[in-house]
Amino acid sequence: MQRRSVVKNIALTIGAAIVLPAWANAWNRESFQNSFLKNPISQENLLAEIVETIIPKTNTPGAKELNVQQFVPVMVMDCYDKNAQEIYKKGFDLVENNAKNTYSKSFADCDAKQRLEVLNKMSKSENSDEKKYIQLVKGLTIQGYLNSEYVMTNLRVYEYAPARYHGCVPVKI
What we know:
Layout: H1 3-24, H2 29-32, H3 41-54, H4 68-79, H5 82-103, H6 112-123, H7 128-146, H8 149-155
């Protein structure tokens, strides 16, 4: 080893240990969130109603109760390209417009059957943005629901070691 490189590395380590905590002190949840994720309350409520329509509450909690509406925008922002993000942004207006054109009221004011009809109509629409929006939100709703703590702990059986080994079973030759 060379003394100069050792001294240089020690100095860099000490400097980083001093500077890093001061630099990281300004970090908080809001500084990491993009303005894209800050949906207006109306859009957040609309998304909650959409995910509840996709997976309603039965004898198990619905998607809204498991806060899937918070999972969807995070996944869109972190894991999808700009095109999908734009479709996601436009999708709220598309849902509202379809509900108003069909039932003359907003999506949130419709009953469960009417909401389901609006979403089914959009999924079968010739408008590619409507179809893509429903596919995107439906897929993320199912993913968020199935990966929620409630489903993973109460509805799925955890196997420590999947597959079986039966060592005492006779083998036919």
